[in-house]
Structures are given as C-alpha cells and as structure tokens.
Design a protein that fits this description.
Layout lengths: L5 H11 L2 H20 L15 H5 L2 H13 L16 H16 L1
Length: about 110
C-alpha cells in the first residue's frame, strides 16, 4: 500500500467515469484550504493549483462545482491569475471560473 501516483489513479478515474467527481472533491478541498489559510497572514498569499480534467472542462459541472465550493466557505472569489496549463485551455478555464464567480457575486 501507500500513495498512488497520479499517472496510476487518474486513468482509472477517467475510465471509471469518476474523474469529474474526483475533480469536484479536489475543488472543494482547495477552496476550503484557501479559506482556512486566508485567516492567517503568513499563509493568506499562498495559492493552490488544481488540475482539471478535460472531461470536467467540457461539461457544465465545473461552473457549478466552483460556485458550490465558494458557497460552502462563504468566499466570493478565487484568484485565477496563476493558471499554468496548456495555453489553449487557459481561456476556457478562466471563462468557466469567471462565470461561476459572477453568478456567486450576483
């Protein structure tokens, strides 16, 4: 036993159809972590990177999942300036995250 590396568990999650559920959980955990860190001046400027599955990007779940994660913590926004992914996907990620944040702020 021990830790399972991403190159092993991600293909299993994709093939089993659980990759979106896994992504939803990771988004929720990341937003909750950022919320806890924001209370500590020594940690408040830290960022968390989350890899998003292409399957999660093309579905409508991503917007809802970001919105739900924000609502669960009471956060109104996320910092989306440090997206380090395929430049071709960056506009889609930013657009989906921005849509969720706009909806949350309304």
């Amino acid at each position: 036993t021990g830790m399972v590396p991403p190159d092993v568990f991600v293909p299993v999650a994709e093939n089993s159809g659980l990759v979106v559920d896994l992504g939803r959980w990771v988004i929720g955990e990341a937003v909750a972590l950022l919320d806890r860190w924001s209370a500590d001046p020594a940690l408040a400027r830290l960022i968390v990177g989350v890899n998003i599955s292409p399957r999660h990007l093309v579905g409508r779940e991503l917007e809802r999942d970001v919105r739900d994660a924000l609502a669960a913590t009471g956060r109104r926004a996320l910092y989306a300036g440090a997206i380090g992914t395929d430049p071709g996907l960056r506009p889609l990620i930013l657009e989906r995250a921005a849509a969720a944040m706009r909806e949350r702020a309304a």
